[in-house]
Structure to design on (195 residues):
């Protein structure tokens, strides 16, 4: 019996790495991994690979566990569109593929439908262990794929011009303006005491 792999990684190792990185065994990361695996069959991993995900939930972690594309190196783009979809593309050619969960297929798989559409669920959410084999079984129906050409600017990891904020004295990205975003009143925190 052959062992399951995902993006060339042993599946059991992937589940271990997922739990370590994400903090839990997440069905969404399994679906994301299958989507990514499908995409990488057509756009091989290379230093020019970029992945854009269209949700902040689960997909970014699947990409970071399985590829060298991370938010920190600029090769993972995260769009908060609430869509379970991703594009894998070559940043030199701007050619790639987009994969997404096919809504019509979800309805044909009751367990997946219960998980994917919690508002329609009657009872508890399906368990990770129950969902994984069904995801693999449904894969060819569940994951839609289409070739794409990236038309927007690829905001790859480019060195940013930085400076020192005149108001707080901290380093910041100069694209924010003459003072940093926090000093412009956009801080997500309120300072307590002195530094």
């Amino acid at each position: 019996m052959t062992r399951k792999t995902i993006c060339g990684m042993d599946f059991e190792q992937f589940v271990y790495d997922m739990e370590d990185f994400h903090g839990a065994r997440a069905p969404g990361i399994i679906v994301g991994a299958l989507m990514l695996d499908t995409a990488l069959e057509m756009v091989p991993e290379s230093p020019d690979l970029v992945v854009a995900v269209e949700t902040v939930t689960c997909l970014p972690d699947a990409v970071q566990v399985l590829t060298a594309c991370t938010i920190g190196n600029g090769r993972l783009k995260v769009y908060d569109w609430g869509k379970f979809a991703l594009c894998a593309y070559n940043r030199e050619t701007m050619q790639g593929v987009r994969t997404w969960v096919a809504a019509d297929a979800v309805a044909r798989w009751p367990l997946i439908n219960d998980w994917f559409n919690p508002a329609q669920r009657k009872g508890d959410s399906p368990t990770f262990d129950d969902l994984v084999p069904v995801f693999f079984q449904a894969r060819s129906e569940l994951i839609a794929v289409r070739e794409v050409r990236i038309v927007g600017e690829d905001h790859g990891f480019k060195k940013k011009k930085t400076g020192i904020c005149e108001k707080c004295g901290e380093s910041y990205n100069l694209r924010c303006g003459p003072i940093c975003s926090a000093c412009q009143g956009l801080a997500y925190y309120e300072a307590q005491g002195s530094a």
